[in-house]
Amino acid sequence: MPHREFHRISRIGWLRASVLGANDGLISTSSLVVGVAAAQAARGPVLLAAFAGMVAGALSMAAGEYVSVSSQADSEAADLARERRELATTPESEHQELAGIYRGRGLSEALADQVARELAAHDALGAHARDELGITEFSQARPMQAALASAASFAIGALPPVLLVLVLPLAGVSATVAGVSLLLLLALGAVAGGLGGASPVRGALRVGFWGAVAMGATAVVGRIFGAAV
């Protein structure tokens, strides 16, 4: 019976897009709320800015991830097509190339030749994709998965500051949004670090620091331009 192990790298596709989207949604929307609230005292413009930022950011994240990961997928497809042609036209040359890779990893010449032939007999393209190109089932680009994960996680991350603007008195909304968002960023950083196998404390501090910098900068900008107006 085959032994199946759990590896964190299997999460890399959706984890990267989800963490990036949630961080960006929370930081950018909270910073927008803090900056706009510091510039004027009416609830409507602050709420409109927060909601517009959430919608625009989610769509922008989805489009950016889709275009970026699609470019990676196109490159992978082109490389696989070239390998398929070379396997059909120059199989012996491709065999020598694969055997050379295994020799470089420490196998003897005879064993490298045997491994290359047996793997090629089972799945030649798969062997070249994995060992020559570095394309595996875990690393393979999935544009739609990345786009949907980014959009959904951005919207989820942006939702707390939008709800706080909606229900809290505007007089204290900047401080409350900043405080709540910072706590959520620390929690999100810790969870992301744990899921990725890194230190939760390091992940929390890293995300929290940059969130505080972003919200502080936009508050200063809002104060300056609000006072100027």
Helix-strand layout with pairing:
Layout: H1 12-39, H2 43-89, H3 91-104, H4 109-133, H5 143-167, H6 173-195, H7 200-228
Describe this structure in words.
α2 crosses α3 (91-104). 34% of the residues are buried. The protein has one domain (9-228). It is 83% helix and 0% strand. It is mainly α and 229 residues long. It has helices spanning 12-39, 43-89, 91-104, 109-133, 143-167, 173-195, 200-228. Mean pLDDT is 80; it is low at 5-10.
Q: Quick gist of this model?
A:
By secondary structure, this protein is mainly alpha-helical.
List its salient traits.
single chain; 229 residues; mainly alpha; 7 helices
Question: What spatial form do the alpha-carbon principal axes imply?
Answer: elongated
Number of H/I helices: 7
Radius of gyration: 25 Å
Flag low-confidence runs.
5-10
> Biggest sheet: strands, sense, closure?
none
